[in-house]
């Protein structure tokens, strides 16, 4: 079976990634995103983060939980 999913808002990506962890096997064929406005420094940090995830040194966290932790702390 092949399934195409379009996630328009960044805030839903982490939730989706957490959801697909429940499946035994998921193959992500292609990711298309418009990151033309993303600063180069952020792209480098995101690439480093993805590398750590792929190496099993870290994992994804639900962004909503992380955001709640820091809301109102002036971070």
- Structural class by sheet pairing and helices: mainly alpha
Helix and strand pattern: HHH
Any low-confidence stretches, pLDDT <50, length ≥5? none
Give me the count of strands. Answer: 0
Distance between the termini: 43 Å
Report on this model:
The protein has 75 residues and is mainly alpha-helical. Helices cover 41% and strands 0% of the residues. It contains three helices and no strands. The chain has helices at 13-20, 40-54, 63-70. The radius of gyration is 14 Å and the shape is globular. It starts with 12 loop residues before the first helix and ends in a 5-residue tail after the last helix. The mean pLDDT is 80.
Write the layout of secondary structure elements.
Elements: H1 13-20, H2 40-54, H3 63-70
List keywords for this structure.
mainly alpha; 41% helix; 75 residues; 3 helices; 0% strand
Can you describe this structure in just a few lines?
With 75 residues, this protein is mostly helical. The protein has helices spanning 13-20, 40-54, 63-70.
């Amino acid at each position: 079976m092949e399934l195409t999913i379009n996630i328009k808002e960044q805030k839903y990506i982490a939730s989706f990634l957490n959801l697909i962890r429940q499946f035994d096997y998921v193959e992500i064929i292609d990711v298309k995103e418009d990151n033309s406005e993303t600063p180069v420094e952020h792209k480098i940090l995101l690439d480093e983060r993805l590398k750590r995830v792929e190496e099993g040194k870290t994992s994804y966290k639900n962004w909503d939980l992380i955001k709640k932790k820091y809301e109102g702390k002036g971070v």
